[in-house]
Amino acid sequence: MRFRIRKTHVLVAAFAAALCVPAAGTSSGHGLPTSIGKGEGVLNVIEWAAYTDPGFAKPFERQTGCIIHRKDAGSSNEMVALMRSGGGGGGGQYDLVSASGDASLRLIYGGDVQPINVNLIPSWREFLPNFRSPAHNTVKGVHYGISLQWGPNTLIYNTKLVRPAPTSWGAIYSSKYKGKITVPNNPIQIADAALYLMKTQPALGIKDPYELTKPQLDAATKLLKAQKPLLKRYWNSATDEISDFKNGDVVIGAGWPYQTLQLQAAKAPIKETIPSEGATGWADTWMLAKRAPHPNCAYLWMKYVTTPQVEAKQALVFGETPVNPKACSYMDAAQKGSCAAYHLNQPLSYYNTIHFWKTPVTACGWQAGNSCMDYNAWQKAWTQVTG
Amino acid sequence: MAVDVLRTGPPGRRARLGLTAALWRRPWLKAVALLTPPLGAFLLVYVGALVVLFVSSLWTVDSFTGKVIHHWTFTNYRQIFSTADPTYLRIAGRTIGIAAAVTVTDALLAFPLAYFMARLAGRRTRALLFVMVLLPLWSSYLVRIYAWRTILAHDGAINWALNGLGLPDQNIAYTNWAMWIVFSYVWLPFMVLPVYAAVERIPDSYLEASADMGARGARTFRSIILPLVLPGLVAGSIFTFSLTLGDFITPLLVGGPSSSFIGNVVYDFIGINANVPFAAAFATVPVLVMGVYLLIARKLGAFEAL
User: Fold this and answer.
1) Does B25 touch chain A (CB under 8 A)?
2) Is ipTM over 0.85?
3) Does A139 touch chain B (CB under 8 A)?
């Protein structure tokens, strides 16, 4: 008898296979702790590369026994996606995420992070007032994380090829350097356009570059669409931008002090400036995942990383500015003049010129009602610009 | 006779033979045993994922909390196919257009190479050419894309050579031209191999018969070679077209300001507000395009050439 596979055989096999589908599990959250318990031995973080640099993470691991496992994210979107993988809230796998201001509110409203007790982190009282309860990580007085470091989004340029030195963001919207300009591939870049319009087209009535009404968002989108033919490309990662400046593919663009420091260290003729219109800035927060499996180690890390010594070390590794002003003397001790170079000695009024990233939501702070465009609308506008 | 062995053999052997006999008597049992693992994987991983994709594309996302709203709607599709805001149609058009351009380029490059390898080259030359065609596959796809970046960069190899010859700089880096070059390069082996197989299968007698009847090279090519190689070309084009259609890394690394592919938009939308439904809806576009493509390919006999 010849063996034949019939349709019914296949159906039987398919049914048997379907029975093997596994079921998924769930887990629950918990309230605010009043003390930090013993470390669980492991700490899983989603971080910007080098945010748990071994230079200062090794002593922490020795002191607490919490061994750090790192997952580097390339963008804010990737961070949010990682936190939402495996059913959200960090998937029961991740404990902490070093979210920037364009991601932190998304994580809060998405229910992916949990409130923390800031009283368990002594350095919190030493922070600059702007960073104790900033709008990007504190909602209605509830803290969803601990501020960490910040930096401005600066105008980076090649000193040999860009003359005279630029003083306005207008340089990246004009055709003078056509084909040699780069800006980040990030919807939050709309805020940079809005900041420029805020100063150059007051008739639009932009009060806050992150709280834009439909006509204001449309105006920013229009400006960015006009900018697109002038660009070499939208950069996707800091290393991308560094290599493009180094290769000479671009001569001017928006970036972070990190890129400038790396390029200057490589002896490239690069400088950065905060133009006359002011600048947007990012401020990062260590946030505790809703389903963090190692909350004690997470609290221990938040406590450790915000101490002045560690803040100073991280600032110099990454090229950013601490939120703890006591870090100033440690920075100067490690690298003379670095406290001033990173603007940590500035008066509080300085911080008013920096518009810190925050996730756009429909509720405007400056206008009654939900008349502002949310991040979804920003993302769609950004896709219209870049797509 | 099998029954005799069953009664007399040692216990282990008896059980094994018993199983063989049972499977022989009941073919359905054999089918279940053979097909359950692959079919299970197929259903779960493959069909299951596609079904989830289609189902979730009919949902939407609450823009405030980012949670999925399980309410059936065609909103996502309406937005993608909207002519008032042709962003997504433009991106889909670009993706399909570049995939088609890459496929045609690879076909034009692969045919003479495959023909030479199959019919003209000696054994050693052929082996050498095979190694050269397959060599790029030995290194990571990412490494090869980065290699192209350094070749095309402002101070890269091409400009260095151009400057050496006293010619002006090229500005191909970070443009759609760069994507076309890189895609054509990375997928070329997938075109060469099926075309080679098709050329090799052409019987010499056909070409001799054609020559005997007075046909010249062009006529033989048009009437004999091309129709016989076409299934191979179409089979190769399935690879080059589908691989380009689904890519999002090359646009990210060598693309310019107007180089987003369907894959990039899908990637971005999953990161933002976890808008999986919209991403799923957009991701069905390449599925549909490939469906149509495969139907045409089948008509052209590509599956016999695979």
Assistant:
1) no
2) no
3) no
